[in-house]
Amino acid sequence: MTILYNCGTVLLMAGVLFFLSGTVGLLRFPDIYSRLHALTKADNVGLGCIVFGLALQSGSIAVTIKLILIWLLVLIASSASCHLIARSAMQKNIQPWTRS
Amino acid sequence: MQNNSCSCKNNICSHPVQQTLLRFSLFSFLWYTLAGPDKTSWIIGIPAVAFATVLSQMLAPSSRLRISPVGALHFIPFFLRQSFLGGIDVMRRALSFRQLLNPGLVSYTTQLPEGSARIFFVNTISLLPGTLSAELHGNQVTIHTLDLSLSIWANIQRLEYHVAALMCISSPGKENI
Predict the structure, then answer these.
(1) List of chain B residues whose C-beta atoms are within 8 Å of the C-beta of residue A97
(2) With the CA atoms of B147, B153, B155 and B161 taken in that order, what torsion angle do they form, in degrees rounded to the nearest 10?
(3) Do the chains contact at A18 and B87, CB–CB below 8 Å?
C-alpha cells in the first residue's frame, strides 16, 4: 500500500514538472505555433502523470475509471482546440517563426 | 439535383434506434462516472445526456466506427509512449539555456479515408513529439514542427499505419468509407 502511495507521489511530482516546463515553454517560445506545442504536449503528459499518480493513491477502481475518463476528455478537448487555434492562425496568415 | 427521397443515406444504418440507444447509454455511463451516484444529479444529467445524443446524431449520423481490439492493443502503448516522448521533448526545449528550436511547416498527404479515421489522425498528430497539425484541406495536412531535423515523415507514417490498424482499414486509400 505504501509502495503504491509513494509511486503515486513520484508520478504527481513528475506531473508538476511537466506542467512547469509547459508554462516555461509558453513564456519562452517565439510564436503562437511553438507555444501551442508547449501547452498541448507538456500539459497532457503532466495531467496524465497526475491522473495516474492520484489513481495509484486512491486505491479505488471507480475513482481510477473516473480519472482516466477525465484525462481522455481533456486529451480530446485540448488536441481539438489546439488544431483549431493553429488553423485560425494559418487562415490569418500568421507566419511561423523560423531560425535565420 | 439532389436526391432527398431517402432519409437514410447509407445502407449501413439499418438500426437507427439501436444506435441511438447505444449512444444514450454511453453518455449516461459518462455522466454517472463523472457525477457520482447522487440521484439528484440526474436532474441536469438526463437533459444533458439527451442533448448530447441528439447532437451526436446530428453531427455524425452514420457511425461506422469499427475499432479493432488488436489494433487498439498496439495503438495504446504506442500512443502513451509517443505522448510521453513528446512531453519530454518539449520539456528539454523549454528548459535548455540555448534556443533549441528550428521550426517550420511540412505538408503531408494522408491516405486515410475521409471521416472519423482522418479526424482522429489529425488530432493525434498534435500529441506526437515535435509535430502539430495546423491545417487540413481534403487529404492534405499541414504540419508545424518544432524541429525540421526530426524524422517527421517516418513518425507520421507510423502513426497513420497505427490509426489504419485501429480503425480496421486494411489498405488506406483503397477502401472508401
Answers:
(1) 101, 103
(2) 160
(3) yes
B49, B27 in Cβ contact below 8 A?
yes
Q: CB A6: neighbour CB atoms within 10 A?
A: 12
CB contact at 8 A, B130 and A37? yes
The angle formed by the CA atoms of residues B138, B140 and B142, to the nearest 5 degrees, is 130
Task: Please report the ipTM that was assigned to this predicted complex.
Answer: 0.90
Distance of CA A59 to the CA centre of its chain: 23
**C-alpha cell of B127?**
500529441
pLDDT tens digits, residue range A43-89? 999 999 999 999 999 989 999 999 999 999 999 999 999 999 999 99
- The span from the CA of B132 to the CA of A44, in Å, is 14
Cell numbers of A34, please? 511553438
A50-to-A37, B47, B64, B100 alpha-carbon distances in Å: 20, 31, 34, 27
CB contact under 8 A, A38 and B142: no
Each domain of chain A, given as residue ranges in start order, spans 2-91
C-beta atoms surrounding B69 within 10 Å: 7
The verdict on A36 touching B (C-beta cutoff 8 Å) is yes
